[in-house]
Amino acid sequence: MSFFRLDKPVQFLKGVGPIRAEALGRMGILTARDLLYHVPRRYDDASTIQPITDLEVGTEATVVGRVRSTGVIPTRKGLRIFQAILKDDSGMITCAWPGQPWLERKLRKGDLLLVTGPVKFFHGRQMRPREFAVLDRGEEDTADEVGGTGHVFATYPASDEVPQWVLRGLFEKNLDLLLSDVAEEEYLNADAQRLYSLLSLQASLEALHRPTSLEGVEAARRRLAYDELFFLQLVQARARYRQTIQKQGIVFARTDDLIRPLHDALPFCLTSAQARVLREIYADMGSSRRMNRLLQGDVGSGKTVVALFSMLLAVEGGYLAALMAPTELLAEQHLRSMRELVEPLGIDVYALTGQMAAPDRRATLDALREGAASLVVGTQALIQEGLEFRNLGMVVVDEQHRFGVRQRMVFGDRANPPDMLIMSATPIPRSLAMTLYGDLDLSILDEMPKGRKPIRTLLRYPSKREDVYQLVDAELEKGRQAYIVFPLVAESDKMDLRSATEAYERLSEETFAHRRVGLVHGQLSSDVKDQVMRGFLAGKIDVLVATTVIEVGIDVPNASVLVIENAERFGLSQLHQLRGRVGRGTTESHCILIAEPGEVAAERLKIFRDTSDGFAIARADLRLRGQGDLFGAQQHGRDPILRFADLSRDEGLLVEAQDRARSIVEADPNLREEDVLLIRMLLDHRYAERLKLFSVG
């Protein structure tokens, strides 16, 4: 197969010599493939042509006219401006290109010119074209011949070394050749293209570089988005097959010796969502397939109880079940709550953390090695090298986003891998969960337990800060506690934001001088952070000044107020995580956002104020902020990012891509059949790093 022709060095293309190849390389364009996929960052639809006489200052416009004169105007600061007077049947206007005197060699009197850009006022009306095209060379005195002809201009990411006109020239000289090469990489036959309503790969890339309509550009984007999603899902489908289907799972037999007594002893009823998710988990654990499932639920939705019931199914079968938390404090919280529930059943819960006293640590290690332990709660100490488990049957990983892919896959590499339940209290849209965790099956807790008091969320301008602090003090007077959160640790020269350290000094010495004020942030050592958080939990600190380090933290039922400074600097999902630090007790709680006035910020923060649904907030956050650095949260380095796929609107496309990827892998796990051989070659070639990450490459 010769599809690697696109991987030839860019230097061998027309119009590219050694010097230009070096300049292109500094833009990340090293091969012919890189150039072909160097797609425009913006498209300007110039299909509506306006008469020059109708142009209004402050608007965007597209006009067609004859060049009546040209010239280069120097300025006092040394800038040279190319100007051209454009005339149509209705009038004339000056077009100015600051810093582009070289255009004098490209444009001449008599050219029929199409320009698009903003209309400004500078010694009269003036256009500053973003884009232009010479439609005709000649001396005719009319532009009527253009009529309703439409144009879509593509603007590429460029540099000083490789400006826009150079890139366009390269595509004019090489696009046909590049398109003929990419045609050999088409892995979707005509039937599949029709099934998913997709363009061919060749047609898609041609539409991006030679656009004729914005609708055509969108259809091209959709095909390339499908390619991205399909190959990412294919990697994860192979990981899923290896971790679940290929590996023999433990068939857990339910006896109800522990599950039923715990269910009967609970002081509350399980929600219908908890019951549904437990049925999904029990079905997995009762099958010969190894469970590898993501449990997603909002703060307070009852994930820990679901995890405990799941762990007890393993214990009923004589197996050890482990829960791994990202911090010592969170592990201790899980330990306390689990002991409270299962010690009446005659089960001891062991602990394993990095800060344990040596005798306690040895006792836990002995119990794990000898099979005396049924339940263990710990930190990353549970995946330390050399640790021996006897009869490990199930592992629960809490707050998955705090661990990397490799960390959660450690248990899957064991000779007798345990079932895995991965929990996340960070609500993310279904499309994002499928993208990040496509190797896992998904369960969602989308119902909150009854009786929880809603958190009252308020928006306040900085001018009302003292009123906010009076409310905080009133809550403190009732014996409650408060968080005050800042986006920065220390003052920044680049951003005019109040810092946590500066605010701590002021709040502790002035505003709350009569209260006990603590400070915690990410630059403190783990020991110091733990000490401060333990003091807050014990009620020895009234006001905790903090950064987002508390985003994933312990439950402090007595904390009833959360103040977030510079709230406009936070994403909605992050604000929601922070809000989850209060409302853990039985009294009404407050979340107060102090934010600078601004139309955009106000819109976002009103969405947050008016809903407590974490999944609705996450969807809004994805829509407003974009998907960002998706894969950074998974800690796996130089993954290809989604350049074309938009998870806020491509969920249907993602579902199709995942279904197809999983069906291909289940039919042919090693992708050796002739009809998927090209897919295998493309996968290995483009996604080697990700395959390696998931241990399937």
Features:
697 residues, alpha/beta, OB fold (Dihydrolipoamide Acetyltransferase, E2P), seven-stranded parallel beta sheet, six-stranded parallel beta sheet, 37% helix
> In one word, what is the shape?
globular
Overall number of structural domains? 5
Percent helix, as a range, is: 25-40%
Strand content range: 15-25%
Oligomer: single chain
Order of the strands making up the biggest sheet: 11-12-10-13-14-9-15
The second-level CATH architecture of the largest domain is 3-Layer(aba) Sandwich
CATH top level of the largest domain is Alpha Beta
What does this structure look like?
With 697 residues, the chain is of the alpha/beta class. It has 5 domains: 1-41 and 156-185; 53-151, OB fold (Dihydrolipoamide Acetyltransferase, E2P); 190-246 and 647-697, no CATH class; 259-445, 3-Layer(aba) Sandwich (Rossmann fold); 455-611, P-loop containing nucleotide triphosphate hydrolases (Rossmann fold). Helices cover 37% and strands 18% of the residues. The protein has a 7-stranded parallel beta sheet, sandwiched between helices. A 6-stranded parallel beta sheet has the order 16-21-20-17-19-18, sandwiched between helices. A 5-stranded mixed barrel has the order 2-3-4-6-5. Mean pLDDT is 86; it is low at 140-149 and 629-640.
